Amino acid sequence: MKKFGFIALLRGGVAPAILATMISHGSAFAQDAAPQAAAEPEDTIVVTGSLLRQTDKLTMSPITTVSAEDLAVRGITTVQQGIQSLSANNGPALTNGFSANGAFAGGASAVSLRGLTTSSTLVLFDGLRSAYYPLADDGTRNFVDLNTIPDAIVERVQVLKDGASATYGADAVAGVVNIITKREVKGLHLQAEAGVSEKGYGANQRLSATYGYGDLSEDGFNAYISGHYLKSNAVYNRDLGYPYNSDNQSGICHDGVCGPNNIANGVDPAIGFTGLSTATNVFMVRPFDPATNLGTGRYQLLNAAAGCGSLTPYTLTDAEYNSEDNAIAPRTVCQQDITHDYGQVLPEQQRWGISGRFTKMIGDSAEAYLELNYENSKSSYTGLASTIRANAPAGIENPAYSTSSGSTLLRLPVYVCARGTTACDATNGTLNPNNPFAAQGQEAAIIGRLPTSTEYNESVSQVFRGAAGIKGDFGEGWHYQADATAMVSKLKTKADGYVYIQHLLDVIADGSYNFMNPSATSQETLDYLTPTFINHSKTQLYQGQASLSKDVFDLPGGPLQVAVGVAARYESLNNPSGNPDYNGPTERYFRLNAFGAKGHRDVESAYFEVNAPIVDQLELNAAGRYDHYSTGQDNFAPKFGAKFKPFRQLMIRSTYSRGFRVPSFAEMGALPTTGYVTQSLGTMPDSYLNQHLNADGSYNNYVTTYSIGQTTVGNPELKAEKSRNITLGAVFTPTNNLSFSVDYYNIRKTGAITSVDFSGAIANYYATGETSYDGVTVITDEVDQNHPDAQRRIAFVQGSFINANTIKTSGLDFNATGKFRLNDNITFSSSIDATYIIKLNTEYPGGRVEHYVDTLGNFNLTAGSGTQQWRGSWQNTLDFGRGSISATAYYTGGYDYSAEDQGSVAGDCSLVPTNYNGDAYQGCRVKSFISVDMTGTIKVNDQFELYANVMNVFNNKPPIDAATYGAYLYNPIVGESAILGRSFRVGAKASF
């Protein structure tokens, strides 16, 4: 395929050439700083997690500060990417790549500090709360969408890696991410960049412009306006190299054992033909027996003359054809690589926004501001060919309708009549031209997917935010601050290509869909069969807060500081069902979840903080906050901290705090929400598997390739989760240019909200066949066509949310920074940041404990992304005075193919992927991963700067992970950007 000329030029020469120029002529160039915001007075700072101004930058709680310049040096183009790359971000984070794999909250991105889920990390804008994204993560957890951050006006991001409910209230269990925008901008600042992968896919562009007028120190005011635009093209599995682009895993081998060929109707090297697939784009039929509600005899191509069309025909050998395992297969089948044809790696994204701020000095000691933001984020991705033979997701008022089994098995009638005819027979109808058995008076059971339409999903998020505030001094040492914010998040979701069940039954009954020749079907019928579904959701947040602080009196170590504050807010969610069944079980779509939620609440709060520098070496701090919710929850969250400096170069710090998280609107009142969890052979007992064997003893594809839908419903009686946080650390600064720190954290969350334990019900069903167990209902799937009398696999399990579990996690954060002047013109700086997780466990009532560290667990919560024990980065920069070059290495530790929430024991390798013979074709561990990015800048003159990034310099692809289901064959938390391979970006900045 011919590439657009600029993209080809970019990946072929421009970016490498600029980077080479920087290396060879570096001593003549320097990195230019981005527009700087005016800071607080130099003798005081205000940090995230505190109400008080202070002079010491070494805080009691561990805080990581990432400036806009830091992100640029790393080649990171958005704040969202920067937050996702934090070492403390782990486990159930929500990345943009998940959108292309059917995430509940498609189009959004969220952070999960300490691996405690997206709902346990509080995200603030300038210290104020933000409205939640209208869709919940996994249909349950509230979070703030990082894609709505106005990148062009962000000055820095402060990440408080400690509980902070004593200051901010609910959700600040694992920590706080505070997005701090620029206070002042002077002049015009422009930026433009474009990038693309070495192979030519994943093109992206970004533009921004910011203009500011006025000088706070001289004119007493500043006003600026800023706009930005970003676009990223979609990336598909077929764009990538093997094995990420194919269902055929037979080329993935370990110790001489190779993976399965999972192509639909494929031929596996070990067992030959893998069994008849119901999921290709070519229809097959066989006679239907109403006495058994099953088809009879062998399937046949519905249109033998058309053959397999664009698919690959395969003729079964005599041995395969005569095998009892293939008793329903025709002589010729059509092969299809579904991942290659339909798989998507990254969604197409388009973002733009506009922001403005006016800041005014009032008198000598007060400052007021008004800030307005509008952000528009659009994300879209395609799915599979439209499905007609399926179990509908769990309904709200009716049982889920199924066309895959039983009396409603999908079939073509003998006669067709005009739409609306209640009884169609020979007296009022005509023989069905789509049914080859109509002349014999037999209905036809049909399998296949629609070749005429593809599922398509689009989300458009609009965020409107206004914030205003004033702060200043009065009287004898009093300081006041008052802020208010209003934020509305609107989301429009669009679904195309999804089959509306009743309309499917209609076009079958009247013969208007041409199954014999689908391309001849009228557009009117296609539109009727897959009507566009549009849903509108909205969240709102209105908040006001005010605080007073004062230096009360002097202690030997400094002034005793006291602060008090009050706050009130209103928050609401209106997320209608995405697939209701209020008009009947067939008046809805296949494959679209029914989940939805609605609610509102008022919150009133009061809080305080006291800081006491007892002596020069010892400082103590105490804080607390009381919150009252109109939905019935009350909580008081205290926090205590201390820092001790035995000598100037060493500081020892510690905190103890209590926190809480209130149930989300979805957890309290969600409509049925279904998530799908991929099953592996290691989680099923032999007694069940042995009922589904091929003649040669291998497992058939009925059990090797399927997922269980786990459906949960809201519980209005839920109570708040409670947490206890402890941190203990030390900061060692032997010289002014060198610093080391290590911090231990320990978090215990009790009353953790979870769905009922599905694993027990699943195990019980496999063992006994019972479909009701301990509050969980099991719904079975269609029969195994080759073994119709065998125990069926599970289609869905259903239960509700409960307060049940205790979650414990602990670990260590490491940081080292150094800056060294090599000569008068060259400075070298280096920074290492890493997190080591010691423990992440869930304790269930009754004493059972699940251990997740270094495994794929919590499998259900993380979409099989697991909990990596080590994550870290190492950045090195050479600044030459008029240019710079930087390299940043990212490391993620490997992990074991096990997950205790899937019935494994941590480290037992029970989830290792196996082929059709049950032999492992991967080692017991997913390998660790390192990628390196490089960035270089050239300052052309005082106004212009050029820069170039080479991402994933060594073209390392993420390690194979065949168990995760957040992406195909790789872990998106580990390798979302690296899956593109080596990529390039060039850009320019101008300031006037």
Overview of the structural elements:
This protein is mainly β and 992 residues long. 10% of the residues lie in helices and 43% in strands. It has 15 helices and 51 strands. The protein has a 22-stranded antiparallel β-barrel. The longest helix has 20 residues, at 5-24. Mean pLDDT is 90; it is low at 1-11 and 13-42.
Task: Note the topology.
Blueprint: H1 5-24, E1 45-46, E2 53-54, E3 63-67, H2 68-73, H3 79-84, H4 96-99, E4 121-125, E5 128-129, E6 154-160, H5 165-168, E7 175-181, E8 187-197, E9 204-213, E10 221-232, E11 235-236, E12 253-254, E13 257-258, E14 267-268, E15 272-273, E16 284-289, E17 294-295, E18 300-301, E19 312-315, H6 318-322, E20 332-335, H7 338-342, E21 344-346, E22 348-362, E23 366-385, E24 411-412, E25 415-416, E26 430-431, E27 444-447, E28 454-474, E29 478-496, H8 501-510, H9 523-529, E30 533-555, E31 558-575, E32 597-615, E33 618-629, E34 634-647, E35 650-661, H10 665-669, E36 673-678, H11 686-689, H12 701-704, E37 707-713, E38 721-735, E39 738-755, H13 758-768, E40 772-773, E41 776-780, E42 794-821, E43 827-843, E44 849-851, H14 859-862, E45 870-879, E46 883-892, E47 895-896, E48 925-926, E49 929-939, E50 944-951, H15 972-975, E51 983-991
Parallel strand pairs: 4-7, 37-42
Antiparallel strand pairs: 1-2, 3-6, 4-5, 6-7, 8-9, 8-51, 9-10, 10-22, 11-21, 12-13, 14-15, 16-17, 16-18, 16-27, 19-20, 22-23, 23-28, 24-27, 25-26, 28-29, 29-30, 30-31, 31-32, 32-33, 33-34, 34-35, 35-38, 36-37, 38-39, 39-42, 40-41, 41-42, 42-43, 43-44, 43-45, 45-46, 46-49, 47-48, 49-50, 50-51
